Amino acid sequence: MSMPPPSLASLCLEWRQGLFSDLPWERDPANTLAAGEAGGYQVKATGYPHCAYLKPVRVCDEHNPRGANEKIVADLAQDLGFNVPPVLLHRRLNALLGEEIRCCVSLIMYPEQYEWGMIWDLSIFPPPVQHLIRESLSHYSKTFALDLLIGQTDRNNARNVILGVGSGQPRHTELLFLDHSYTLNYGNRWANNAWSNLEMVPIPPLFRESLDKTLVLEGADDIAQFSEETIQQIVARIPSDYMSDAHKATVATALVGRKNLIRDFVDRNL
Ligand SMILES: Nc1ncnc2c1ncn2[C@@H]1O[C@H](COP(=O)(O)OP(=O)(O)OP(=O)(O)O)[C@@H](O)[C@H]1O
Ligand SMILES: [Mg+2]
After folding, report:
1. Which ligand sits nearest to residue 53's alpha carbon?
2. So where are the chain's domains?
3. For residues 104 and 90, what is the distance between their CA atoms, to the nearest angstrom?
4. What is the pLDDT along the chain (270 residues), one digit of tens a residue?
5. What CATH class does 112-269 carry?
6. Closest by Cα among 150, 104, 154 to 251
7. Ligand 1: residue whose CA is nearest its atom 16
8. Is 270 exposed, middle or buried (CB count within 10 Å of its CB: 0-12, 13-18, 19+)?
């Protein structure tokens, strides 16, 4: 697993500690990122040295709290040392009629980035490069344990993991796991204790073949040891208009319950 350089790590911590960003985020004219299903775009704020990706633009129904899900998962990942960019909630005051106001911003950590779909077909690379790619992916096995905890359903997606490339010399690179809209209790799927049913996270075959079971189990152990109190705090501080109180109660109960089920699930299924 590659961690961000120290300068970025302190910024990530600042975003982890915060809940809202009140910066005047505006669409970045230099935006090159194509919007996903939720609608979103690259933003910048005058005087702030970093860009972010703002989502969603599409209005979210009560059981599809995209912004809240993104923030909860990013906070968990930050505390556990998994590779997810930090997120802050952001009320989008300039939203047009019919657009979502309860948005979030996800920090764009690196000046250059590539979607992992570009490396899925290993046959286009010579054998030594194939080995290097598999080996690099295996270092992110722990993050797979996070996907199990949150019940990620959208990881078999060519755009939902990116390679961030820094500007230093030598270039710092890091895979970043994105897009946590379809996780947690989306669609109220975890109601009536249904959260206790763990399911295998769909991932591209290349990542599946590269997973290092020992590392996934280490990730599962880190998650099992994670403080229940911190889970409660991460969920409880989300405002009720972003995620209803009933939905928050389900998410907190589910995360606390699921964290102890992952090791056994990995042991039996990987
Ligand atoms: N923090 C970030 N850093 C760099 N690029 C990002 C970041 N967040 C999003 N992006 C880019 O924007 C794209 C769309 O973001 P994301 O996948 O979160 O939204 P989406 O697919 O619209 O979500 P949904 O699943 O809710 O429809 C990503 O594939 C990625 O290229
Ligand atoms: Mg996406």
Report:
1. 1
2. 6-107, 112-269
3. 5
4. 678 888 899 999 999 999 999 999 999 998 888 888 889 999 999 999 999 999 999 999 989 999 999 999 999 999 999 999 999 999 998 888 899 999 999 999 999 999 999 999 999 999 999 999 999 999 999 999 999 999 999 999 999 999 999 998 889 999 999 999 999 999 999 999 999 999 999 999 999 999 999 999 999 999 999 999 999 999 999 999 999 999 999 999 999 999 999 999 999 999
5. mainly alpha
6. 150
7. 179
8. middle
- Rounded distance from Cα 38 to ligand 2 centre (Å): 8
Residue with CA nearest ligand 1 atom 4:
108
CA of 169 to the centre of ligand 2 (A): 30
Q: Whose CA is nearest to atom 17 of ligand 1?
A: 179
C-beta neighbour count of 243 within 10 angstroms: 25
Locus of tokens 């990730």: 219
Check: pTM over 0.90? Answer yes or no: yes
